[in-house]
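Exercise: predict the structure of this protein bound to pyridoxal-5'-phosphate.
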Amino acid sequence: MISLLLDKSEKTTLTTISMKVSLADLHAQYLAIKPEVDAAIHQVIESSQFILGKAVSDFEQAFAKAHQTKHCIAAGSGTDALHAALWALGVGKGDAVITTPFTFIATVEAISLTGATPVFVDIDPETYTIDPEKLEECLRSKRGNAKAIIPIHLYGQPAAMDSICEIAKKYKLSVIEDACQSHLAQYDGIFVGNFGVAGCFSFYPSKNLGAYGEGGAVTTNDDALAKRIRLLRDHGQVEKYKHEFEGHNYRMDNIQGAVLGVKLKYLHKWTERRRQIAAEYKKHLAGIGNLVMPYELSEARHVFHLFVVRTKSRNALQKFLTENGIATTIAYPIPLHLQKAYRHLGYSKGDFPESETAAQECLALPIYAEMTDEQVEYVIEKVKVFFRD
Ligand SMILES: Cc1ncc(COP(=O)(O)O)c(C=O)c1O
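Solution:
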């Protein structure tokens, strides 16, 4: 854990004793909030109310307040949140829903689960989010049955929501934001989760705001939609064993609500630390070899769920960093249109060239609030060594 600056005949050389840097350190995060989180979990166990309950409803209110939305409906996962939002909007068989193939499969599974057909549009190569020009091109050429669009705020950066919302309005499409990776991110000073009719979040443990298990939520400013999602979440029950319509079980555990309620209080601080690390990476790594830094839109406040660089030497860089104790990840190595699971959609290699190239060149470096300055420095040094040698 030590890095030393040694002076050698006028030249300053950085030598580092090797260390381990993981992709996240959930245990360090737990230790930082242990008394509070233990007490909150204990309280739920004492109450014996394990499904939904006070901790969940308190968290819903706090999360809605944090994102300045009217409603927040907690769910079992981000996948649940996406599916419930689409279902509540009446998306189903015969409809098409537009998104990109450069995302986690859950975005597209949620579409298929409703019976609708996913339609892919390529990403912008700088932001990795849906390219508004290509979106419009797609709608012009085969608008047909498109009912909704799911822009993904990938890696923590909001998609170009001004253009996307304008296009959606023109073509009468509902916008459902996949904000699973972008808690507290902003576009034009507005929090994600406010641009579409619904915003869907994930609280998977390694997310910027992570539960101690599965969790998700939908935010909306639409009263009727909020009511419908709340009912869908609990088998369409208006009261015990009285079902207005069929729904599903998308309920959040009360223990997760308690954990998330505690963690949410720290999210602004943790997000600041992520942004600080990102700034440090950019300061030292921009212009090194053929490495491309993440591009931050001037309208956006990126929350750096992942710090994704790109380089033509991606695989070699990843191998080198692994050998030096630095964990990295590739999000995502195979775009969805080339996955066996989506062969039936009829896409081929070459259909979405930007997604395909990104899949070959992207690499996420470690970034998390508990990372020490020494760890950040170590990652920077090793990346520099890779491109120097
Ligand atoms: C972009 C994106 N969409 C959807 C999901 C699904 O969330 P969950 O894993 O909570 O179901 C995730 C999280 O893994 C995600 O990163």
